[in-house]
Write a structure and sequence with these properties.
Length: about 200
């Protein structure tokens, strides 16, 4: 019995780079809210540290994100994506008031967070929750957060293909009509610590 018969077939090639696209459910524009964008970057930073992948480029739009990554450790890109999507969903729904405050440490999706790491991440999420509550009070401007069930991936067939996808990522703010100063992209010096060289 195939429990995943509707899942996309994934191609896993050692030392390969992948271009990945993930969308919100029904393309809801959650990321018009900068608090949620900053939370996404926090989650991306933590997941990169824990799952050990190289990140060559990324972009966060109103309803989707792109990554250009190369898994470098024991984690496949599917496992990396599962971690990013699941942890962010839990955290963003905490920030928006749908999920209760953090459970005990053993229930963390970022399962390897311990001690200072878990406290630091939880502190950041609580800070975003306070900012969100201060801005919106008791109102609920967004539905409960969900990603689309799967994600699109493309195996980059060499450095030229990877560079072409990085150029595609760079065109995204203009393509989607975002403000000229849209900061949630890998070329922003503020996020230089997230990006690895090819």
């Amino acid at each position: 019995m195939n429990l995943h018969r509707n899942s996309q077939k994934r191609i896993y090639i050692p030392d390969a780079a992948y271009f990945i696209t993930v969308k919100t459910l029904h393309n809801f524009p959650y990321f018009k809210e900068r608090i949620l964008c900053d939370l996404f970057v926090e989650n991306l930073r933590v997941c990169k540290r824990l799952k050990g992948f190289d990140l060559y480029g990324w972009f966060l739009g109103y309803d989707h994100f792109h990554l250009a990554i190369r898994p470098m450790g024991k984690w496949s890109y599917s496992e990396v994506m599962f971690s990013i999507k699941k942890q962010f969903s839990h955290d963003v729904n905490r920030v928006m008031g749908f999920n209760p405050p953090f459970p005990n440490e053993g229930a963390q999706t970022f399962a390897h967070l311990r001690g200072v790491d878990v406290i630091g991440h939880q502190t950041n999420v609580e800070r975003f929750r306070d900012l969100f509550a201060k801005k919106y009070g008791n109102s609920q401007p967004f539905p409960k957060f969900q990603w689309q069930k799967s994600f699109f991936d493309h195996y980059c067939r060499g450095e030229t293909d990877l560079r072409n996808h990085l150029e595609y990522i760079l065109r995204n703010p203009t393509k989607h009509g975002l403000p000229a100063d849209w900061p949630y992209i890998f070329t922003n010096p503020k996020y230089a610590d997230l990006v690895d060289g090819i």
